[in-house]
Specification:
mainly alpha
C-alpha cells in the first residue's frame, strides 16, 4: 500500500519541510534581508546534496545528466526558484503571507493544467475530488485567519500589485514542477535538485551583482542569529523539501503533488498559534478538516 503512494507521501513530506523553512527563512530574512538569505540557502543546499548524492549514487555532482535534462531543469529552476520565489517574497511584503498564501492556492490547478498540456497527464474523478476538497479546505483555513496588524487598509494599487505578484509566484511554482518532471524522466530526484540549485544559485548571484548586494550577503554570514535559521532552512528547504517535491512529481500526477504540497499553510497555523499565542479560528479548524478529507482521497 505504502509503495503505491510514495509520491503522495513525498508531497506531504515536502509540505512538512516547507512548514519549518517558512518560519526559519522568515526569521533570517527579517535580520539579514530576503535576497541575501535567498542566495545563501543555495550553497548550503548544494553542499548537503553533494554529500547525499555521493553516499546514495557514488557521484557527487550531476555530471551524468544529459543535455536535455540540464535544459529542462534549468528552465524549471528559473521558473520556480528565480521568477516564482522573487514574485512570492515580494507579494508577501505587499499583501502579507495570509493573502499571499491564499492566492498561492491557485498553483495546484495551474500545475494540473500545465501537466495536461506538457505531459499529457489526466486526473481520475477521485483525484479531482481530492484536489478540490484539499484546496477548498486550505483556502477556507487561510481566509478565516485574522489579517496581520497594518494589513487591513492596504491600498487598492498595492493590493492589485501584490495579488498579481502572488499569481506570478503560483505560476512559477507550477511551471517549475511540471518542467522538472518533464526533464527528469527516470533521473534521480536529488541529482535533479542539484541542477536546479546550481542554476538557482547562479541566478541569485547575478541578481546580487546587479543590485550590488554582496555586502549584505557578507553581513548575513557574520550574523549568527540570521545564519543559524538560514542553515536550517537550507537543509529542509532546497535540499530535503525540493528533493522530496521532485520525487513526488516523478511518482504521481503534477496536480496531485502540488495539491498535497499546498497543505503547508495548514501546518503553519498551529505552529504560529503556539509561537505567537494566536487563537485558531473555528473556520480554520473546519478548513483543516475538509483538507484532510481531500488528502485521504488522494492517498488511499
Amino acid at each position: 500500500m505504502l509503495l503505491a503512494v510514495t509520491g503522495e507521501l513525498a508531497a506531504l513530506g515536502t509540505a512538512l519541510c516547507w512548514t519549518f523553512t517558512s518560519v526559519w527563512f522568515t526569521a533570517a530574512s527579517r535580520r539579514a534581508g530576503a535576497l541575501p538569505i535567498n542566495f545563501l540557502r543555495m550553497p548550503i543546499a548544494l553542499a548537503l546534496l553533494v554529500v547525499w548524492c555521493t553516499i546514495t549514487r557514488g557521484v557527487p555532482l550531476p555530471t551524468d545528466a544529459d543535455a536535455s535534462t540540464w535544459g529542462w531543469l534549468t528552465a524549471s529552476a528559473l521558473c520556480g526558484f528565480a521568477f516564482g520565489d522573487l514574485c512570492l517574497f515580494r507579494a508577501f511584503v505587499l499583501i502579507g503571507p495570509r493573502l499571499g498564501s491564499l492566492v498561492m492556492a491557485t498553483a495546484p490547478p495551474m500545475a494540473a493544467i500545465l501537466g495536461a498540456l506538457v505531459l499529457d497527464e489526466s486526473l481520475t474523478v477521485r483525484q479531482l475530488g481530492g484536489v478540490a476538497l484539499t484546496l477548498s479546505g486550505v483556502m477556507l483555513a487561510i481566509a478565516t485567519r485574522r489579517a496581520p496588524a497594518g494589513r487591513e487598509h492596504t491600498g487598492r494599487a498595492v493590493l492589485v500589485q501584490g495579488v498579481v505578484l502572488a499569481l506570478g509566484g503560483a505560476l512559477g511554482q507550477a511551471a517549475g514542477l511540471v518542467l522538472a518532471k518533464r526533464g527528469m524522466g527516470e533521473y534521480d530526484a536529488f541529482a535533479s535538485t542539484q541542477i536546479r540549485v546550481i542554476v538557482g544559485g547562479l541566478a541569485f548571484a547575478i541578481v546580487c551583482s546587479v543590485l550590488r548586494r554582496w555586502a549584505s550577503v557578507g553581513a548575513a554570514l557574520r550574523d549568527r542569529a540570521a545564519l543559524i535559521p538560514c542553515l536550517l532552512g537550507g537543509a529542509f528547504g532546497p535540499f530535503l523539501g525540493v528533493g522530496l517535491s521532485l520525487y513526488a512529481a516523478q511518482h504521481t500526477a503534477s496536480g496531485v503533488a502540488a495539491s498535497l504540497m499546498a497543505t503547508q499553510p495548514l501546518l503553519v497555523i498551529p505552529l504560529v498559534a503556539f509561537s505567537e499565542r494566536e487563537r485558531i479560528a473555528r473556520g480554520a479548524v473546519v478548513g483543516a478538516a475538509i483538507a484532510v478529507a481531500g488528502v485521504v482521497l488522494l492517498v488511499t
